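Appendix B. Worked example

We walk through a single record from start to finish. Start with the input: the chain for GLPGLI family protein, Mucilaginibacter gossypiicola, length 307.
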Amino acid sequence: MKKQLLLCTALLTSVFSASAQKPDTAQVLVHYKFSHVRDTTNRDHPYTENMVLIVGKNAGAYKSYDKQLQDALFKKQVQEQVANSPDGHVNIQRRSSGSGVEYYQYPNGKKFFRKEPLLFNNYLITDVLPSVEWKISGDTATLGGLHCQKAVTHFKGRDYTAWFCPDLPLHIGPWKLNGLPGVIVEAYDTRKEVVFKFDGVEKAVISTQKDTQAASQPQGNQGRMIMIGMDDQPGDPNIIQPPANAIKTTEKEFAKLQEAMRKDPNAFAQSMAAAQAASQGRPAPKIDIRIGPQPVINNPIELPEKK
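Next comes the structure step. The output line below is what the pipeline stores for this chain.
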């Protein structure tokens, strides 16, 4: 417990600075229907999620579109209830939907960020943008009105086929895929166990400065609301920038946190709460959490390379 507390305290003091990468503004949104056969004994029921790639001029962010919609709905419901409640009491049954993992690519600087949620906090892992060796073919296709070209590669233990759009010139794609002379709008491995299926493209609607300021201001006499499990970043959701409230960590340290959470969720939650309370100079609350059955994952998206 003491070792966990020291680790958590150290991590909590290392908050990512928003100035590390200049924010970019979305130009287009590429939608995907993502599917992943996590459990090879149950291939008929793969994990599925609606995802979006937010494409800017110099950067891109890949995240859950399902979660974006659910978070926006929840915030709206909370604001409406607070506004209409004399005592500020809120009673909403929140439905969890979508993954909180987000990927940020900066091809010009070869930078890559991954945001991982764990219990009460978001963690940010910084890495070099993965290098992907593509073979571009002469095959072409039209997806949603976009002229696309085919490419193939071997990456993270799988053989992938990708379709990229040269008219969208940023060298990014969904997940960790990148490096083609155009945005990757569809990709899948040879066994169709991991599929990023193209589901449409749209021009980003950029909020005006007035809209952004209004979104960040409390309404009436409310204090600013912070909602656990969501990025507390007011303003235009189409601004591409890793979350400013994320705790900067490494792959190794985050793996330790995940293992501690897996072994004893309650002890981990208590140590996190104690570390947070200590950093704020207040008593630690008592926490009792219950983790439901976890999905079977015997076929991760990243496979070990065969020797």
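Two observations about the output. The chain has five helices and 14 strands. The chain has one domain: 20-249.
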